[in-house]
Amino acid sequence: MQTQKLDVHEQPSEDGALAQTAISRLRQLSMKLAMAEVDISVFDAMQPLEDDWRALERDNLQSLHQSYDWCAAWVRAFQRPLAILKGTYAGETAFILPVEIVKSRGLGVAKFIAADHSNINTGLFSRNFAESGGSIDAEKFAGQLRHALKGRADLLLLQNIPLEWRGRQTPLTGLPMVQNQNHAYQLPFFPAFEETLKQLNAKNRRKKFRVQSKRLEAAGGFEYLVPEASEEQHRLLDIFFRLKSARFASLGLPDVFADKETQAFLHGLIDMRDDGRQYFGLQMHVLRLKGENEGRVAAISGISRKGDHIICQFGAIDEELVPDTSPGEFLYWQTISGLHGQGVAMFDFGLGDQTYKRSWAPVETAHYDVVLPVSPFGVLAGAAHRIVTRGKAHIKARPKLYKFTQSIRARIG
Predict the structure, then answer these.
(1) 342 phi/psi in degrees, rounded to 5
(2) Nearest C-alpha neighbor of 165 from the set 198, 130, 118
(3) What's the rounded Cα separation, in Å, for the pair 260 and 269?
(4) What tens-digit pLDDT sequence spans the chain (413 residues)?
(5) C-beta of residue 332 within 8 angstroms of C-beta of residue 322
(6) Cα gap 261→259, rounded to integer Å
(7) How many Cα atoms sit within 13 Å of 200 on the Cβ side?
C-alpha cells in the first residue's frame, strides 16, 4: 500500500489529516460508482491481451503464477478452453483474471490457469484498482462476473488467494469465499544471511548445519550446483520426476507430476528467463554427492522468481542416500544463503503445512478460494467445494486425525 511522504520541513496538521481522509473516502466512493461502468470482456485466447497483460504484471505484487509467460507455458501443454476476464474502465485496463475452463463430470469450472500447480494467486489488477481494496461494490462485481461467464462455466472457483499480500488487500475481498485448507509459509530476507537467520532459532540451526556438513564430508563430500546450461537444467528436472515418483509410490499416493502435460509445462518453464526483470520460470538447484556416490543426486529443488519474490515450487530427495544428513533441508540452507545479495526480499515455501517449512518460515499466510456459482449446477458444486474444503481444514488442524486419514489413503492406494 502506498503511503504519502511528508517533506522534512512540513508538519502534519489536523486539517491535512482531515483532507487526506476526505480524499480517501471520495476515491472509495468513486470506485464504487465506477463498478457500474466497468466493462468485462471474455477472451478465448491470450495473444490479444499480451500488451495489457505484460503491463499489469510489471507490478511487483502481482503473482508470478498470473504472469503471461507462466500461463502461456500451461496453455501450450494442456490446450484447455480459455475464458480470460478483462475489466476495462475509462478506456484503461482495470484487471485481467487469467481463467481456463476445466470440465469434470459435465460441470464447467472456471479456474485460474495452472491452478493445480500454483502456490499463490492474485489475479492482475491495475494499481488504482488493486489499491481500492475493500471499497469495491462486491455484490455488483459478483453479478458482472456471473454475467460474463454465463453459458461458459457453471462455477467460478479462484483458489489460493491471500486476502492481503505484502500490505495490499485483494480487490476480490467481499466475493463469496471459503478459507483454503492449506496455508503458505514465507521467510522474509534481511540484507545479510545472519540477520535473516535471527528470525529463526539461529543457534540451533547453525549447529545442525555444522553436523550435516561433517556427515556429508564423512560420506565423501558434496557440491551444491545451479547449472547454467539449459540441457543440464532439463536433465535435473527429469531426475526430480523420478525421485518424486518413487516417493509417491512409497506412500501409496498418486503422482501429480506423472502426466505428460504437466511434465511438458514444467520443462517449458525452464527456458523462460528475463534477467532484466529478475524473472525466471523454473530453476533447478541440486545437492550432488562425491566419493563412492560420485555424481548421485541427494536432494533437488525447483524455484521460480518474479522481482524480489522467490517461490519454491517443489523438492525431492533420494531416500537411499545419506538419510542421516537431512539433505533436503541442507539444500535449502545452501539455496537461501546463496540468494542473499541478489535483490530478494522473500523466500516463499509455498502451500502445505510441513515441519521443515515451519522451521524455516516465521510468516504463515492464509489463503482463500472465491466460490461464485454461475448456474444452478454451480450452486451445488460450490456448496460441495465449501463442505470438502472445510472438512479438509478440520482434519489438517488435528495432527492425529490427519495422520490416520493419510494411512487410510495409503492403504486404499
Answers:
(1) -115, 25
(2) 130
(3) 14
(4) 333 332 333 344 455 555 555 544 545 545 454 555 789 999 999 999 999 999 999 999 999 999 999 999 999 999 999 999 999 988 899 999 999 999 988 899 999 999 999 999 999 999 888 876 556 788 999 999 999 999 999 999 999 999 999 999 999 998 999 999 999 999 999 999 999 999 998 899 999 999 999 999 999 999 999 999 999 999 999 999 999 999 999 989 999 999 999 999 999 999 999 988 899 999 999 999 999 999 999 999 999 999 999 999 999 999 999 988 999 999 999 999 999 999 999 999 999 988 899 999 999 999 999 999 999 999 998 898 888 888 776 666 555 555 545 544 444 44
(5) no
(6) 6
(7) 23
Cell of 258: 506423472
